[in-house]
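Internal ticket - ligand job 217, NAP:
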Amino acid sequence: MKRPQVIINCAMSADGKIASPTRKQMQISCDEDIERMYRLRNKCDAVLVGIGTILTDDPKLTVKEKYVKHPKQPLRVILDSKGRTPAHALVLNDVAKTLIITAKGKEKTYKGSHIEVVSCKTDRNGFIDVKGVLDFLYRKGIRTLLVEGGGTVIWNFLKNKVVDDLYIFIGSCIIGGKETPTVAEGEGIKGEKDSIPLKIVEVKRIGSGLLIHYQSQ
Ligand SMILES: NC(=O)c1ccc[n+]([C@@H]2O[C@H](COP(=O)([O-])OP(=O)(O)OC[C@H]3O[C@@H](n4cnc5c(N)ncnc54)[C@H](OP(=O)(O)O)[C@@H]3O)[C@@H](O)[C@H]2O)c1
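stdout (structure tokens):
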């Protein structure tokens, strides 16, 4: 199957958490890493998150001009099988195009020609089928896809073995909490032999934290 290059980027605390114990967004990256993230986002054809991130963080998913002059604004893609994206979500602003992918029969209409809603087949968990999404995006001309989260989406991309590069910024803080979201959620592996192998490509210190670039093995 031809598919886009899939890059995951996320920021975690030293104890592997990606948000606060109440699942609220919190700043884990330092300014230098935020700038790196915007530059990476601008280099990609599309940026993808799950509906969980839209509902908790309400991100714009655009590229700020403060960090990149004349940003090209990648396509914003939301995996939203039940059609829960609110009409007032900031990701629907007209700064960039947005593609909402739902399950069949859950398509809603939104105001603005920059918003497209399509349906895709679902997997056995009722989620949008990851390989179906990649096939659709490839046929749409997307060659590089940045997956930004949250943990459920990241897990599903890794589980489907469709991830090429994984950038994890480790912030110098501890968040704690048994239920606090982590980089990869979902059901996790079944047994020790099922762990998803990665290789380290580069490790570098950025501002107050550490950036690790992994690739899938
Ligand atoms: N630190 C960081 O870098 C970072 C970045 C982003 C988010 N976050 C944090 O992550 C948390 C949100 O993560 P989350 O795990 O709750 O939500 P999520 O991964 O953003 O979205 C998960 C939801 O997306 C929908 N979905 C549809 N197809 C899917 C598929 N193939 N795979 C996975 N999900 C699919 C499902 O909802 P439906 O069944 O309704 O479709 C699923 O429950 C927030 O606390 C946020 O602050 C942190």
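Auto-summary: Strands lie at 5-12, 46-50, 75-79, 98-102, 115-119, 144-149, 165-170, 198-206, 209-216. The chain is about 20% helix and 25% strand.
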